[in-house]
TrEMBL record:
Species in which this protein is naturally found: Sinanodonta woodiana
The name this protein goes by in its record: Protein unc-79 homolog
PANTHER family xref list: PROTEIN UNC-79 HOMOLOG
Length: 578
């Protein structure tokens, strides 16, 4: 039998397993039967890779790969195999015996298929693999994240910063959400995010969109990691009180070379994307990861294939890490994930001040680095980014609201949590921790939304409307760490910001406090529930009284503030009368 006919008949076996399991036909194949067939495919694909002739490194960029693939691999039904394997994913949670074996074999063969697939199929693979986190046994989480971070994402997205959007790069937010939502291991969270930070330039947009629109279990890690990797967003770097987030570094990849000098127990420092090196690998599909001793051995023949790999960003410096930095203001605002810069920092992503950032990223080479800058003030963001930032702030401020109102608001979400496997995780997460997340929203609001003339009042009004609901939700805080941390923000930090708004946009403040505020200011609190008109007025008045102790509109000169309060109250009473 030729390799091609054998492959076809084995694909037919897979389809047969699938229909017998789905239709409950006796005898039922076990997960182990299906896994053994899948192992045949992995071995076949690996053996093809080991026969591959030497491909010049420069002809194996992400764009040339399709033509390389056609010219060097035997003509087999790879896409047929790919679809048959994808079909097996749904079987993993329903087979009685061998779930783990089947899940593992599916992930394995998908990894081996990567060099053989055309771009269009490859593009959706990272998201498909990430979605198995929801249905495969949790013991496979590590394999799944490793497959994504050390194989699929570098192989599909390359290292040009994803300037050209593709399906794979556009699914970044969805993939990260899957990892945050279905795993509670902090090292997986940092691993997936740092992986994307090293290949996608505008990853900040994805993080903000997860905070804005993601499920609760993904919002919290997204917010914590945003402030971990962008510490300049934190206005009180010295004040670490109440910050509970602790970074966990992801475990290093170990050397995969067949005859590793250190028997494979050594941390890999280099990676080779080119399948021509597969012959040196034990049982792993490309890319091949090797330790520094093995790199010395292989360098003679393959030096042009090797690239250094990044190490975990276990420290995020707030001062410039360029050893020759001469700037007076050496506060950091950029992080470069390109190895050409990271190599100055022991292969960890490096943090630069303004000046050093410009020096390193002005040249033709430097312009192409994958680096991350601060978020600009909201008024100078693109409309898309403005929307994400505004919605992220609103979502964070809503974290301070009591859970009951969130329950009714996000019924579907909460219900799923209560019956799902994440039940425990969500219950343990206490209300205080959630309320504390709202502080991030305040920081983003005050630091990035400084009021000035000529700004879209819809954005300002919406943010104000939500901020007033936050005052309402945090009016009666317990006298503990969380309560004090939030209360401290009100007395000066927020009030100073509000004073500025008062000077330039008093009319927007007033319009948000009236019994029937403009549409865009109706956000958060009771506005998210199906409240009656009477409740709306009652709640609105209550919210207004929560603000009175903080002198929000009384710091006017000439007593205009008092007159305004009178007028607002009068409007409330008139509304009630009619
Ligand atoms: Zn080695
Ligand atoms: Zn070789
Ligand atoms: Zn510097
Ligand atoms: Zn750089």
């Amino acid at each position: 039998m030729t390799r091609s006919t054998k492959l076809t008949s084995k694909i037919r076996n897979l389809k047969d397993y699938h229909s017998r399991i789905i239709n409950n036909v006796i005898p039922q194949p076990t997960g182990i039967d299906a896994a053994n067939t899948l192992k045949y495919f992995s071995q076949t694909l690996l053996s093809i890779l080991k026969d591959v002739p030497n491909i010049p490194a420069e002809s194996y960029g992400p764009r040339q790969r399709d033509s390389v693939r056609l010219s060097i691999f035997p003509n087999l039904n790879y896409s047929g195999l790919y679809h048959a394997v994808l079909n097996m994913i749904d079987l993993v949670p329903i087979v009685q015996i061998g779930q783990l074996e089947l899940g593992e074999a599916v992930l394995n063969v998908l990894g081996c298929l990567v060099p053989f697939l055309e771009h269009e199929l490859l593009d959706s693979l990272p998201y498909t693999v990430a979605s198995t986190l929801a249905i495969f046994p949790p013991t496979l989480h590590k394999d799944t994240i490793d497959l994504l971070c050390s194989n699929l994402l570098p192989m599909t997205l390359g290292f040009d910063g994803c300037v050209e959007p593709s399906y794979a790069s556009e699914s970044a937010a969805a993939i990260i959400t899957m990892v945050f939502q279905h795993t509670d291991n902090g090292s997986y969270h940092s691993q997936i995010l740092e992986c994307f930070m090293s290949i996608k330039r505008d990853i900040i947009k994805d993080i903000l969109s997860i905070i804005a629109y993601g499920p609760p279990s993904a919002r919290a890690p997204a917010a914590n990691l945003l402030f971990y990797y962008w510490p300049q967003l934190n206005p009180s770097l010295s004040d670490r009180r109440g910050i509970h987030y602790k970074y966990s570094a992801w475990p290093p990849v170990l050397c995969q070379r067949e005859n590793c000098v250190n028997s494979g127990n050594c941390q890999a420092v280099k990676m080779c994307l080119n399948p021509a090196l597969a012959i040196h690998s034990r049982d792993k599909p490309p890319p091949l990861y090797i330790c520094s001793d093995c790199a010395d051995v292989l360098r003679k023949d393959h030096s042009e294939y090797m690239m250094d790999i990044l190490l975990p960003m276990s420290h995020v410096s707030t001062i410039c890490e360029n050893k020759n930095c001469k700037s007076k203001n050496n506060a950091t605002l950029s992080t470069c994930f390109s190895i050409e810069c990271a190599c100055f920092n022991g292969n960890r992503p490096i943090r630069y001040c303004q000046n050093c950032h410009e020096v390193h990223h002005a040249s033709q080479q430097g312009i192409r680095h994958v680096y991350h800058l601060s978020i600009p003030v909201i008024w100078s963001c693109t409309p898309e980014m403005q929307r994400y930032l505004m919605d992220a702030i609103i979502s964070l401020l809503k974290e301070a609201q009591p859970l009951e109102s969130k329950r009714s608001l996000e019924m579907g979400e909460e219900l799923r949590h209560r019956i799902g496997e994440e039940d425990d995780m969500f219950e343990v997460e206490d209300a205080g921790e959630r309320k504390l997340l709202s502080r991030y929203g305040i920081w983003l609001l005050v630091e990035l939304c400084k009021p000035k003339d000529d700004i879209p009042i819809e954005i300002l009004g919406r943010l104000l409307g939500m901020l007033f609901q936050w005052f309402d939700a945090t009016a009666y805080l317990p006298d503990d760490n969380v309560g004090n941390a939030l209360e401290r923000l009100k007395s000066e930090y927020i009030t100073n910001w509000l004073k500025e708004v008062n000077k330039s946009h008093l009319e927007v403040i007033v319009s948000c406090l009236l019994p029937h505020p403009v549409e865009y200011a109706r956000v958060g609190g009771f506005w998210d529930t199906l409240a009656t008109r009477t409740t709306q007025i009652k709640e609105g008045l209550n919210c207004f009284f929560c603000l009175v102790p903080y002198d929000i509109i009384t710091f006017q000169v000439n007593n205009t503030g008092f007159r305004l309060i009178q007028n607002i109250l009068l409007t409330f009473f008139l509304t009630v009368i009619y």
